[in-house]
Design a protein that fits this description.
heterodimer, A: 362 residues, alpha+beta, Gyrase A, domain 2, 8 helices, globular, B: 126 residues, OB fold (Dihydrolipoamide Acetyltransferase, E2P), 4 helices, 9 strands
Chain lengths: 362, 126
């Protein structure tokens, strides 16, 4: 079993740092080092370094690259400027999600796509099946890159000691290409999955471990900690970011997930447009909500949500918010249910869901 | 390395049992268990007076990652619970063998203690 798991270029570093390694999406990944809550708070108040090398990458190259992406993605890429990135959903014709992605425009005819680890092979196969007569090449670069995320209020101070790139000129979702800690041709983007300020850094795989070590050493005096997947999940939930397989899936469309802003109906055609437009105009059967609980118990994925005695949905994600010090999460509930009277069943106890419209951390 | 005090008894489910001078027993979870669970956020304990059989579920310990059942190492009556764990469940992470005891049990059958593991047998399972 474990022989089949992939290891990132940082595997030896994780073991040295005493990480607890777990299987995740076919990879052997660190779930925690010092503890989920401590790591979470380090990112909120200081800085944290994540190994996200399990994420996949694909390059789209050709004179039709932008038009091709406009045709298969919900967001618009012909209008994206080079050195900028954009979040998007890739949908099936019925509006279900193939994946959610960040796409970087490298140049007029070239883009780099960041793929979820568990979906990378599926995404590349799907995109290849849509190429048809478009003049594009899809290049699998999953093994080419190590990916690091440096997040937290001290992230910029730490990274600026290790690169000549002008980080202070980077706006959110902007990126630069250059040297980081001696590694050439790195992509440094002001993006992240935590809600705190910071960067995602694509490093050629062979230099990934050295760059991570340099960042950890440089950040140590500022309280930088290595961060595992456990805190990655609690950070993204506090910030209200979806995770594929939970808030988005082949069964949960971007309209249901509250991500209408990623769907550009102004484009004349793209895969899923008709279904998503119908959902927007006629309403959806169920939708994703965010909640907190005034309790210590955490509602786990799959727990049933009730309105009165009637089961109206289920929990999609649940964790403890270290910032609020109470349980938070997301649920998929029937659109007709009254949101002020929802409860969740946790091992036989019904607890009221406190519904929120805005993320818990901004 | 997990701390496994030699004066305690253990179960394969990672509970510890301390035999008190009056013959009652105190029960908690081991250092290994708290480390495996990670940050503990909630502990559900039984009411005083509850009758337990050995291997009954007597409560739940919940961490950021998961909820796990707690199994009674012995049969008997719950004569005390550690209510300080309501407000400070993280005591389980900090002092699993001392302040984070969970329940005290009046034994039905002291012979059951012989079925528990000693520290070296428990250590060999880790």
């Amino acid at each position: 079993m474990s022989a089949e798991l992939s290891r990132t270029p940082l595997y030896d570093l994780h073991v040295e740092l005493g990480a607890r390694m777990v299987p995740f999406a076919g990879w052997e990944m660190p779930v925690q080092y010092s503890g989920i809550i401590e790591e979470h708070l380090a990112v909120r108040h200081k800085a944290g370094l994540f190994d996200v090398s399990h994420m996949g990458e694909a390059r789209i190259r050709g004179k039709d690259a932008a038009a091709f992406l406009d045709a298969i993605m919900t967001n618009e890429f012909s209008s994206l400027q080079p050195n900028h990135a954009r979040y998007t959903i890739m949908c099936y014709p019925d509006g279900g999600c193939v994946d959610d992605l960040i796409i970087y425009r490298i140049s007029k005819d070239e883009f780099l796509i960041c793929l979820n680890a568990s979906n990378a092979a599926k995404d590349i196969a799907w995109m290849n099946s849509q190429v048809g007569n478009w003049d594009v090449k899809i290049i699998d670069e999953c093994t080419h890159w190590a990916q690091l995320a440096l997040q937290g209020p001290f992230a910029e101070k730490i990274l600026s000691c290790l690169t000549h790139l002008k980080l202070d000129t980077l706006k959110r979702f902007g990126f630069l290409i250059g040297d980081v800690a001696g590694a050439k041709d790195c992509i440094v983007a002001r993006t992240g999955y935590t809600g705190s300020p910071g960067f995602e850094i694509y490093v050629p795989a062979a230099q990934g471990s050295a760059v991570a070590r340099a960042i950890l050493a440089k950040g140590k005096p500022d309280g930088l900690l290595p961060i595992g997947l456990g805190a990655r999940d609690s950070l993204r939930l506090e910030a209200g970011y979806p995770l594929y397989g939970h808030e988005l899936s082949e069964k949960i469309s971007p309209i249901q997930a509250g991500l209408s802003w990623t769907v550009k109906f102004t484009k004349s055609q793209f895969i899923g447009r008709d279904s998503l437009l119908r959902q927007t105009e006629k309403g959806v059967a169920s939708k994703v909500i965010m909640y907190s609980l005034n309790d210590r118990r955490i509602a786990r994925p799959g727990a049933t949500v009730f309105s009165g005695d009637q089961a109206v949905g289920e929990i999609l994600s649940g964790t403890l918010s270290p910032v609020l010090n109470k349980p938070i999460g997301t649920a998929l509930v029937g659109s007709g249910s009254k949101t002020d009277t929802l409860t969740v069943d946790i091992r036989g106890t019904r607890l009221p869901l406190q519904i929120t419209q805005t993320p818990f951390f901004k | 390395m997990s701390n496994v005090p030699s004066n305690l008894h253990y179960t394969k489910d990672h509970e510890w049992v301390k035999v008190e001078a009056d013959g009652t027993v105190t029960v908690g979870i081991t250092d290994y268990a708290q480390a495996a669970l990670g940050d503990v956020t909630f502990i559900d304990l039984p009411k005083v007076g509850k009758q337990l059989e050995a291997a009954d579920v007597f409560g739940t310990v919940e961490s950021v990652k998961a909820a796990s059942d707690l199994y009674s190492p012995v049969s008997g009556e719950v004569i005390a619970i550690n209510s300080s764990l309501n407000d400070t469940p993280d005591l389980v992470n900090r002092e699993p063998y001392e302040k984070a005891w969970m329940i005290k049990i009046k034994l039905k059958s002291p012979a059951e203690l012989d079925k528990l593991l000693d520290s070296s047998s428990y250590q060999s399972l880790l």
